[in-house]
Amino acid sequence: MSPVSRGRKSKKGKTTSGLRGAARHHADGAQVGQPRSAFAALQALLGSRERPAWFDSSSKAVLDQAGVLMAAQGPRELEQATAELLGAELHRVLNEERKGMWFDWWFEELAEAATARIREQVGSRDGSWEPAWRLLHGLTSIGSPALQSLAGRALECAKKELRGEAALRQQPGWLRQLARITATGEVSEMRDAYGARIALIAGFSYPGGVDRSVFLFDIDACGVVTIVHAGVFDDVQEAASAWRALVGDTAQGARPERIETTERLLCLVHCDSEEDVLRGTESRAVLDNWFRARRRIHDLAEALRKRGMSLPAARSLYHNLDTDPMAKAFTGWYVQRHGSEPDPEVVDALVEEWMEGALPDTWHAASPHRVAVQLALISDWVPDDPITIAAKALLPEWVRWHGEQAGLPEHLIDRAVAVAAGGARAASDCAGLRV
């Protein structure tokens, strides 16, 4: 399944024309280079934003299982249990409902349903309202600022309902810390050998240094920049080991390095984690952290801003790209290797497709997964156009050149070239990814 993107935008600078332009537009009139999938098409058919039928059953399912939150002994445990409770339901909905994926809207309704559950059960001597009370606190810890505010208001409404309840005064004080988790501002980075699979490991704690932990953002920048795995760990080394195991042999030599300049965090700025980029194949780990990952990006950005290290401004990865230097460099390499020049229109088409949407520091990252994404995009051009045919034929040499520019060992270059040439992709090259 191809990744789902927001769609390519026409460039303000250099434009496609002639055969190249014709090849890079779909026969059905879709935008240039736009990856498509059956799931994206299904979502597009939804039309108006109608309230999905699954909202009520999913809210009830979460509230009925909220008793598991009572086992938490501290804020980190409650946060994790809340994230997993919501993630399990998102995973079910994504795989069974297949439409109406308005997750933020559902989060809001879940908070309201929790307040309603507390209202119904207030006065009960068995404390049956307590799981919903804990759920609301958990929601304040994982929701983005807007969602956190909604959960906070729901919590205040619930508190009014519980006025006079003796058990309310007996609730653990650490519940109030959930909404106040903060980033320490310490961030480490790792990359696999190809350079487009990125691990960012950021420190977090609750007030007073309680329950210190790190959050792992596992980012795939081979196509649309996306979080493909995430999770909470005790420390940097534990998170690093988990990431290396996920990625496979191309990450075994990676070691976490402290980030000193926020330019290295550009990938966070461009992470697509909204409902309209759902592939329909997201892992349980991604869905457990669907809300929390966005919240942690905000927390980290706020901590860095207070240190005078604001995240870099978002800039278009599609507009005003200077493709000439890459085209000239590849052409020079090709001439030295083959004694003749490649078709300049084909080279230009490859350069544009390769650079559009890519982080600048991954322009030479020719991983097997990146190549597979490019093949999917090229296959979405007009299929029988001469430029399309020639681009596929030239792709193996294009990939080899990038691998050499990146200084990759020959065996890793060969893996990527094999994909470009139609060879099978080794599972270890994209461990943890479902493409």
Describe the fold and architecture:
The protein has 435 residues and is an alpha+beta fold. The chain folds into 3 domains: 44-179, no CATH class; 182-306; 320-356 and 364-430. It has 16 helices and 5 strands. It has a 5-stranded antiparallel beta sheet with strand order 4-3-2-1-5, with helices on both faces. Helix 3 (54-64) runs antiparallel to helix 4 (75-96), helix 4 (75-96) crosses helix 6 (130-142) and helix 14 (368-379) runs antiparallel to helix 15 (386-405). It is elongated. The N and C termini lie close together (6 Å).
Break the fold down into its secondary structure elements and pairings.
Blueprint (H helix, E strand, L loop, with lengths): L17 H6 L14 H7 L9 H11 L10 H22 L6 H19 L8 H13 L2 H17 L20 E10 L5 E10 L3 E11 L5 E8 L2 H12 L9 E2 L7 H4 L14 H5 L1 H17 L17 H15 L5 H12 L12 H12 L6 H20 L4 H11 L15
Antiparallel strand pairs: 1-2, 1-5, 2-3, 3-4
Helix pairs in contact: 3-4, 3-5, 4-6, 5-6, 5-7, 6-7, 12-13, 13-15, 14-15, 14-16, 15-16
